Structures are given as C-alpha cells and as structure tokens.
Amino acid sequence: MPPRRLLKLKHERTDLGFLGASLSEDGGRDASWMLRVESPSSFEAFHDHLADGSSMALSMVTRDGEQLRGEAYVSSISDGVDTATVVVLTGAGPLRRA
C-alpha cells in the first residue's frame, strides 16, 4: 500500500504540528504500520518516549479525511544541522478506524 499523507496528528489531546507526515501500512496478516514525521513543531514528547521506551497514543487524519488511532513507539529521531528533523514511529498493534 502506498504511503498516505497526514493532515493532522495528535498525541493524547495535544496537536503536533509538522511540515510533512506520511503513514505506511502493510496490509498483510500482521497489519503493521509506520509513521514518518518531518520537522515536528515540538519533539520533546518524542525524545521522552524514546528515552523511556514507552508507547505514544496517537490519533491522525489523512488527506482523504480518514480518522485513525493507534499506539506507536518512537524508533528514531534524526536531527541534523542542515537537514530537517525526522521522527520515525513504529505501530504497536493495529490502527483503529475512528
């Protein structure tokens, strides 16, 4: 399945702004998913969850208006001087349609 662009992303009840975000899903038997967030407005929450290994409760809206919810773990944060900060999250279970 091709990546889908996001319009909105929330952690718990807090809006997370971003320059770009894409959701990739594997529609196979295990239905895994990955989220890539480019230039988040704040990445403190991502750092905190990466440091303690806890999952993040996320809700998101795709460009086609589909509302999704799921738990995810922060896989990596790349923070370069001359490049955008990119946060990669891996789903901790299936995405739920809202």
Question: What does the model show?
Answer:
The protein has 98 residues and is mainly β. 9% of the residues lie in helices and 50% in strands. It is globular. The model has no long low-confidence stretch (mean pLDDT 91).
Principal-axes shape call: globular
Low-confidence stretches are none
Q: Rg, please?
A: 13 Å
Count of helical stretches: 1
Instruction: Report the β-strand fraction as a percent range.
Output: over 45%
What's the order of the H and E elements? EEEEHEEEE
Nearest-integer average pLDDT: 91
Count the beta strands: 8
Strand order, sheet with most strands: 1-3-4-7-6-5
Largest sheet: 6 strands, antiparallel, barrel
